[in-house]
From TrEMBL:
GO CC aspect terms: cytoplasm
Top-level taxon in the UniProt lineage: Bacteria
InterPro entries xrefs: Metallo-B-lactamas, RibonucZ/Hydroxyglut_hydro
Record's protein name: L-ascorbate metabolism protein UlaG (Beta-lactamase superfamily)
Lineage: Bacteria, Bacillati, Actinomycetota, Actinomycetes, Pseudonocardiales
Key words of the record: Signal
Gene source species: Saccharomonospora amisosensis
Pfam family, one: Lactamase_B_2
Residues making up the signal peptide according to the UniProt record: 1-29
Entries under SUPFAM superfamilies matching the protein: Metallo-hydrolase/oxidoreductase
Location of the Metallo-beta-lactamase domain: 105-299
Amino acid sequence: MARLLGTLTAGMGAVTAAGVAAAASGVRAAIGGTPDQAALLGSPQFRDGAFRNLVQPQWLPDGSGREVVRELLSGRGSRRPTGSVPLVEPDAYAPTDGLHLTWYGHASSLVELDGARVLLDPVWGERASPSRLVGPKRLHPVPHRLADLPALDAVVVSHDHYDHLDMSTVRTLARTQRAPFVVPLGVGAHLRAWGVPDSRIIELDWGDETTIDDLRIVATPAQHFSGRAFSRNNTLWASWVIATPAHRVFYSGDTGYCEAFNDIGERHGPFDVTLVQVGAYASSWPDIHMTPEEGVATHLDVRGQLLVPVHWATFNLAPHSWTDPVDRVWKEAKALDVSLAVPKPGQRIAVAAPPPVDGWWQTLT
């Protein structure tokens, strides 16, 4: 019996050790690659070994640790929906003229403009984390299987944080799609580490652009930071202009409110629709994530017509309540007479005829 118990214990220990090793290996893979600094030195944004914002963001402006703790401890009960988030299973995608948009939750969206399809910041993973065991977990399922997406013309990534760039999602898209990945400088290192060939990676600096038939994609400034492990700011972050001769779309990515948006509006606007980050804000990081009111201001700065708020509803990443971003953006949009659409995850909308805002989220508070 003692010998049997010893054998079983040793076996269980080996299984546990193997599981820990596998988990550690998975985390290492999910972190991604390391950019070659020599390839980044030509960027005006890359100085002293790191990428820089146009204006240095401010952290903990009040110097008040007590205020940060109070924020984190308040409102915990309302940081997740009280019921199931309503999802819309998209119909089969047919080639279409005009401009359509499908929001899948958080920052993941499909933009269809004049026959071209662009997937933004696709994250289909269960956690915004390199680990399958810890980290912010989804508050609702993905409304559409990744493998069932229509043929894409481009996959655009704003920056390398885990809630915007997911290894498993990238690997699936690399296998099931032929579209190039259009990313900020340095982010290509992660894609290469995950098996995406160089021929499908387009890395852009702010002000650079690429064209795919009639589709034009421009990397524009944002005020944020990057990093997936211990290194920080060794890859660039960006907002994006996506345009055809007939339509223009602006996607903010993650950003603090900054003067660059006025310039983007003057150079590239007006925009038929803007997808603007409105969630994951806190007083301890005021300059790297916008508040809902700043999101509306950004929409106006870039000269947008229809505003679609993103970066909310899917992951708990800040101390505010689950509905605070969308409640506040709706209030501000009404006050400033801004056209607003708040689709359910998976709901495909026509930008020229958006559905009225119905407050669908308010039954889940």
